[in-house]
């Protein structure tokens, strides 16, 4: 595990790709949220993030998973790809595929039917059924568009 300057963010070396980010949304981005780049950066080139959702093509461009809450005006980390440990997977079973929903930052193990986009796969549950020790595989760019 690699220690970072953010308490609780300890990515597994060789298991995950992560990026330092900045939250300038005006509210806290809670742990377990899925985010996208917000189109601007700090003076030291740290990208701003905001919550992703499946309502428009632009909003569905998922960058990754927020493991620890990031308060407004603070830096944190987004897990872009790989195995994220200590995730809340209580509602899910091993092997569940996670899909972006029309609710900002939220995923489901059921493909959305109300999305104008189609099915946006963002991850897979490796260890399900745990509120504190679950694991997911974040899959940046794993969008699967199906025209219906």
Q: What is the β-strand count? A: 10
Number of helices: 0
Instruction: Report the oligomer.
Output: single chain
Give the DSSP E fraction (strand runs of 2 or more residues): 35-45%
Q: Strand count, sense and closure of the main sheet?
A: 10 strands, mixed
Q: What string gives the helices and strands in order?
A: EEEEEEEEEE
Rg calculated over all Cα atoms = 14 Å
Termini distance?
Answer: 43 Å
Helix/strand class: mainly beta
Helix content: under 10%
Parts with pLDDT < 50 across at least 5 consecutive residues: 142-148
Shape: globular
Overall pLDDT metric: 84
Please describe what this structure looks like.
The structure is a single chain. The chain has 148 residues and is mainly β. The protein is 0% helix and 42% strand. It is globular. 32% of the residues are buried.
């Amino acid at each position: 595990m690699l220690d970072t300057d953010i308490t609780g963010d300890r990515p597994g070396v060789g298991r995950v790709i992560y990026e330092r980010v900045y939250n300038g949304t005006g509210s806290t981005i809670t742990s377990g949220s899925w985010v996208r780049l917000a189109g601007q950066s700090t003076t030291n080139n740290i990208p701003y993030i905001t919550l992703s959702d499946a309502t428009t093509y632009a909003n569905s461009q998922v960058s990754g998973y927020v493991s620890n809450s990031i308060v407004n005006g603070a830096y944190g980390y987004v897990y872009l790809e790989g195995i994220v440990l200590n995730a809340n997977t209580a509602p899910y079973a091993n092997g569940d595929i996670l899909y972006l929903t029309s609710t900002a930052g939220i995923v489901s193990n059921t493909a959305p039917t109300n999305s104008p986009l189609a099915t946006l796969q963002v991850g897979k549950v490796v260890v399900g059924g745990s509120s504190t020790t679950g694991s997911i595989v974040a899959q940046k760019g794993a969008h699967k568009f199906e025209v219906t």
